[in-house]
Design a protein that fits this description.
The protein is α+β, with helices and mostly antiparallel strands and 611 residues long. The chain folds into 4 domains: 2-169, GAF domain (Beta-Lactamase), CATH 3.30.450; 190-292, PAS domain (Beta-Lactamase, 2-Layer Sandwich), CATH 3.30.450; 331-495, Beta-Lactamase; 548-605, no CATH class. It has 16 helices and 21 strands. Strands 1, 2, 3, 4, 5, 6 and 7 form a 7-stranded mixed beta sheet that branches. The longest helix is centred in the last third of the chain and has 60 residues, at 470-529. 26% of the residues are buried. The model is unreliable at 1-10 and 88-94 (pLDDT under 50).
Length: 611
C-alpha cells in the first residue's frame, strides 16, 4: 500500500492547472498521487483513492488516503480486489461516474464511508484503473463536483496514456538498439565476407573478412562497383552482366561462383550470394555474401586433370585389350546384355511388359530387322502377339493369328529351334507373306517351353537369306528359355494376385458386416439403457452413422388423433428436437403410411417449406 500525503493548492477552479501539472509528470505513481492530492485539497471526497489495474510488469496498485491519514490495510485490500466496484464494461472509453452504496460488512463502512463515486481511468482501447471518491453519510457530490471529478479523471487518463506510450517507445528503441548492435557484431565478425551495396552495385559497407578477401581497406572498397571486380574473361563478363542485373532488379542470387580480380592484381574465386535488404531507408540496398572457394576450385581442377589422365590411360589400355580379345569382349557384351534383359524381365509384371522389355534390349546381342514374341492358345487355336520390335506397326502387340497361319513345325513343338532360310524361296501366304513384304528374308524361330508344352515363339527376322549362325541359335535359345521362365512366373503371379484380391474383398465384406453387427449391438444396448423415447431416438441416430452414412437425419413419431408429428431427435437438420409440426407439413406418402421404405428425390420435398 502506497498512501498519498501530498497537499495541493488546487481548488475547484484550478482543474486546468491540474492538467498542466499532469503534463510535467513521467510516472504512473506521480499521476496517481497528484490526483488523490487534488481530490483531497478540493474537498471532493472524505476518502480518495486511485486503483491502477495490474499489468505484465506490475500487480494492482492502490494510492490514496482517508482524509489526511493513510488508507488502512483492509481498505487497500478491498480496493485492490475490486470490491465493491460495479461492472463498468459498458462504460469503456468514457469517463462517466458510478455511484456505489457501500455494504455494511465492507472495510470501507468500518471507516464511516457510506457511498462511493467511481470514475474509469482509460482510453478507447486501454484500461488503467479507476478513481474512487468516498463520502460519509451526510455528504453528497454536486453536479459541478462530479463534472470536475470526471474532467480530472479524463486528464489523468490522457497522462497515463502518454506515459504508457513513452514507455513503449523507449522499450522499442532499446530493443532496436540491441538488435542493431547484435547485427553489427554478427556483420563485422562473420567468418565470411559481407558487403552492403546499392542497387547500382556501389559498395556502402564491408566487414573485416571482406577487407581481408580483397586485400584492401574499407575506405578503398567503399564506392567501388562489385560487378567491375569480375574477371575480364568471357565467363567473367557474363557473370558481371548477370550480377549487375540481379543487383538492379533485387532478384536473389544463391551460390553463384564468380572469378574476381583483386586490387593488387591477384585473382580469387568466390561463391556469391545476394539478397535485397528490406529495412527502413535502406530498402533498395543489397546484402552480398562471398565465400572464398579458390582452393576448392584448384583442387577440383587438379582432380579433373588427374581423372582425364587416368581416363586417357584407361582408354589406351582398353583399346589394347579390345584388339587382343575382340571375340571375348563380344561374348562379354552379350552376357552383360543378357543380364540387363534378366533385370528388365524381373522388373516387369505382365507378359506384355516382359516381352516388350526383352525385345527392347535383344538387339544388343542379336541384331535384327524385326522381332516378335507370341504365345499359343491351344484351346482357341490361335496365337497372340505379345510385343514386336520394328519400324512399323504391322502385327503389333495384341494381334491374334490363327494357328493354321502361324509357323509351327514338329521341331518347334518338340522344343527345338528352327529357321526359315529364305522366305522368297518358298510359297507363303497370310502372316509369312506380310513379313516378307516388310523386307524380312530369313527368320529364326525359338520355342518357349513349359516342361514339354510349347508356350509360344520368339521370332527374329533379318533382311538377308541364311543369316543365322549356330552362335545365333545358342544365344537365341538362351534368351527364349529366360523368356519362358519369366512368362510362367507372370502367369503364376497373376493367378496368385487374382486369388489374393478375392480373399481381400471377402475379408473387407466380413469386416464391414462385423462392424454393422457391432454397431447394431451398441444401438440395442443404448436403447435398453435409455429411459425415454427421446433418449432412444438420440442414441440410435448418433450411432447409426457409422454403418449408414448421412448428411442429415431425424426421428419423428406421428400422433394421428392430434394430427401432429413430433421430432424426437435430429442431426444436422433444419428441424430441432424436440419440436412438433402439423401432419399436413410432414411428407407422408401412401407408401410410407403403408409401412414401406421410400427413397425420395429433392423434387419430392418441394411442398415441404422446411426442406
Amino acid at each position: 500500500m502506497e498512501a498519498s500525503h501530498y497537499t495541493s493548492d488546487l481548488d475547484p477552479s484550478s482543474v486546468l492547472g491540474f492538467g498542466s501539472a499532469l503534463a510535467m509528470l513521467d510516472s504512473t505513481e506521480e499521476v496517481a498521487r497528484l490526483l488523490t492530492g487534488a481530490l483531497r485539497s478540493m474537498g471532493l471526497a472524505d476518502l480518495q483513492a486511485v486503483v491502477l489495474d495490474s499489468s505484465a510488469d506490475d500487480p494492482t496498485r492502490v494510492f490514496g488516503s482517508l482524509g489526511t491519514r493513510p488508507l488502512p490495510g483492509p481498505v487497500v485490500d478491498e480496493l485492490r480486489r475490486g470490491a465493491p466496484f460495479p461492472d463498468t464494461a459498458d462504460a469503456r472509453g468514457t469517463p462517466s461516474h458510478h455511484r456505489v452504496e457501500v455494504p455494511e460488512e465492507s472495510a470501507l463502512a468500518d471507516q464511516g464511508i457510506d457511498h462511493l463515486a467511481t470514475v474509469r481511468l482509460g482510453t478507447l482501447d486501454q484500461e488503467f484503473g479507476r478513481v474512487v471518491a468516498g463520502l460519509r453519510a451526510d455528504d453528497t457530490h454536486t453536479s459541478l463536483q462530479l463534472s470536475s471529478l470526471q474532467m480530472m479523471a479524463a486528464q489523468a487518463s490522457m497522462a497515463l496514456h502518454r506515459i504508457a506510450l513513452h514507455r513503449e517507445q523507449a522499450a522499442q528503441q532499446e530493443a532496436l538498439r540491441e538488435s542493431e548492435a547484435r547485427y553489427r557484431e554478427l556483420y563485422e565478425n562473420a567468418p565470411v565476407a559481407y558487403l552492403s551495396a546499392t542497387a547500382e552495385g556501389k559498395i556502402r559497407m564491408a566487414n573485416r573478412r571482406a577487407t581481408e578477401l580483397f586485400g584492401a581497406s574499407r575506405e578503398a572498397l567503399t564506392g567501388r562497383s562489385i560487378p567491375n571486380f569480375c574477371a575480364g574473361t568471357p565467363t567473367g563478363q557474363e557473370a558481371a552482366q548477370r550480377l549487375a542485373e540481379c543487383l538492379r532488379s533485387g532478384a536473389p542470387v544463391r551460390d553463384d561462383e564468380v572469378e574476381l580480380c583483386l586490387p593488387d592484381g591477384g585473382r580469387v574465386w568466390v561463391s556469391l550470394t545476394m539478397r535485397p535488404i528490406e529495412a527502413g531507408d535502406r530498402a533498395s540496398d543489397r546484402l552480398v555474401m562471398m565465400v572464398d572457394v579458390t582452393e576448392r576450385r584448384r583442387m577440383e581442377s587438379a582432380l579433373r586433370e588427374a581423372r582425364n589422365e587416368l581416363e586417357r590411360r584407361v582408354k589406351e589400355r582398353t583399346a589394347e585389350l579390345e584388339q587382343a580379345n575382340e571375340h571375348l569382349e563380344q561374348r562379354t557384351r552379350r552376357l552383360q546384355a543378357l543380364r540387363d534383359i534378366d533385370q528388365a524381365i524381373l522388373a516387369a509384371e505382365s507378359p506384355e511388359e516382359i516381352a516388350t522389355a526383352t525385345l527392347r534390349r535383344a538387339r544388343e546381342i542379336m541384331p535384327f530387322h524385326r522381332a516378335s514374341v507370341s504365345v499359343v492358345d491351344w484351346e482357341a487355336e490361335r496365337a497372340q502377339v505379345l510385343a514386336t520390335r520394328q519400324e512399323d506397326e504391322t502385327l503389333e502387340g495384341g494381334t491374334t493369328i490363327p494357328l493354321d497361319d502361324f509357323f509351327l513345325t514338329d521341331a518347334l513343338r518338340a522344343g527345338e529351334a528352327d529357321t526359315i532360310d529364305d522366305l522368297a524361296a518358298r510359297s507363303s501366304s497370310g502372316v509369312a507373306e506380310t513379313v516378307k513384304d516388310l523386307g524380312v528374308r530369313s527368320v529364326l524361330c525359338l520355342p518357349m517351353m513349359d516342361d514339354e508344352e510349347l508356350l509360344g515363339l520368339l521370332q527374329i527376322g533379318r533382311t538377308r537369306p541364311q543369316a543365322f549362325t549356330d552362335e545365333d541359335r545358342r544365344v537365341g535359345t538362351e534368351l527364349a528359355d529366360h523368356l519362358a521362365i519369366a512368362l510362367r512366373q507372370a502367369h503364376l503371379r497373376q493367378r496368385v494376385e487374382t486369388r489374393t484380391t478375392a480373399l481381400e474383398q471377402a475379408n473387407d465384406r466380413l469386416a464391414h458386416q462385423t462392424q454393422r453387427l457391432q454397431t447394431l449391438r451398441d444401438i440395442d444396448q443404448a436403447i435398453l439403457a435409455a429411459e425415454s423415447p427421446e433418449e432412444i431416438a438420440t442414441e440410435a441416430i448418433r450411432r447409426v452413422r457409422s454403418i449408414l452414412p448421412y448428411e442429415s437425419a431425424t426421428v419423428t413419431v406421428t400422433d394421428w388423433e392430434a394430427g401432429t408429428a413430433h421430432v424426437l431427435a435430429a442431426a444436422d437438420n433444419v428441424l430441432a428436437a424436440p419440436s412438433t409440426l402439423p401432419l399436413d407439413e410432414v411428407y407422408l406418402s401412401d407408401t410410407l403410411r403403408a409401412g414401406d421404405t421410400e427413397v425420395l428425390s429433392v423434387e419430392a420435398y418441394e411442398p415441404v417449406p422446411e426442406a
